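[agent] plan:
  1. take the single chain provided in the ticket
  2. run structure prediction with default settings
  3. attach structure tokens to the ticket
  4. add a short note for the reviewer (M.T.)
[agent] executing step 1
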Amino acid sequence: MKKYAGLVLIALLTSCAGPKKPEVTESVTYAADWKSLSKHNASPEWFRDAKLGIYFHWGVYSVPAYGSEWYPRNMHFENHHIYRHHLETYGHPSEFGYHNFVPMFTAEHFDAEEWADLFQKAGARFAGPVAEHHDGFSMWNSEVTPWNVADMGPKRDITGELAQALKKRDMKLITTFHHSKQLQRFDSTETGSRSEGYELSHYPFFKGMPPASDDEQLKYLYGNIPEEQWLEELWFGKLKEVIDQYQPDIIWFDYVLDQIPEAYRQKFSAYFLNEAEKWDKEVVIVRKQEDLPINYTVDDLEKSRKNQIGEEPWMTDETISKGSWCYTENLEIKGSADLLHVLIDIVSKNGVLLLNVSPKADGTIPHNQKKVLLDMGAWLDTYGESIYDTRPWYTFGEGPTKEPEGHFKHHQEFLKIKYSWKDVRYTTKGDLIYATLLGWPGAGEEITLTAFAEDSLSDPMEIASVALMGCSDHIEWEVTEKGLSLVTPGEATDEMAVVFKIEIR
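[agent] step 2 finished; step 3 output follows
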């Protein structure tokens, strides 16, 4: 019998009880406190080497294919265009709620082997699902909630099938959690039509709407549950379930994690890290906005990136589109070169890219998205040694294009960035330095890499050879007081980006 069937009794028992600090059982190495957790190595070598991962926003919100993955929230606000669309297309949200979309999420064309092949061909070294978005629908076989893909909708264990397919290909598994926002926290007025005041809860508590329903099953989708019960049975319970069933290599958190009591954040961290010790795995926890201490986690910058080399490895989660993270009709997709340049820029600054794709509700990945992934993968097949297993040089690069300050709050500005061949990014490995030009300058072009100027280097450097990767032509080069001067050959090796491989003595 499903666990959630007995949670009504738990709700009655916990609703009158005061908050208490949760306990971690069977602690192995890590206690549930910040000092103990700080012993964890946040960025193991495999993570630093991986450089590229792929995940996907795919779930019940993919069914309406309108607006964005925030459809389940915005369909309740009368002043929102999604509300008007829902009213015209499906009827009033009090009569056709978000839960009514669940049987329409069929995923009949989902093929875990095909997806894993695509992600591998794209050059990703890890991949996985948005395990649960803010909407409360779990993309794995859950005993904690009835609202999961094994019991409803596709009636398949999406996460389990993909995890097995990735394992066959020696790829790591990432599962991302956005469910800290699912709890109805009731921070402001409980009536009205404006969205202000509900920033910490995904679903608004409007009387007469499904999120305010007394139906015991609906409460598990809409988060209308006493907080102490929700924290233990749903927030932590879902994380524990995914850890136990799939042994993920990376767990990534979206925002509002700071609203989870410290004791529960510590409990999760200790549980995951102790289980990883039993598996003999080096695992990674990724967080945003200082919601967990940085000394044992990796920092994530949504839709933005650093404009200098990070002291510690970091991550950017970026989407393949210019709009919604989930599939919508007429979704505009970024160019292959633009996304490749984002990857190269991130890697040069000690970062890792987590790239999102947007499948359709039926389980197909649109052709235009596949093309971008395969274009990037083809480039990485030839020039990947300048990306994988590399480390930053003393400078990330040179050129006229600069990234803005402020990270996510300026994410619209990042969309406008266009690099050119004048923008150079550096990585290094052993006695090799890779200088990647973000474009092709043309044949016979004289280029000076100023990072090699003597007064820029902290130590003298002797260059043994210079080659253009993918090209057998001899490259003319010399070191001058201005830097490393070289001349491009007669034909482009690639139009998106070219890599000069520089060997030093």
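[agent] step 4 note for reviewer: The chain has a mean pLDDT of 92.
[agent] ticket updated
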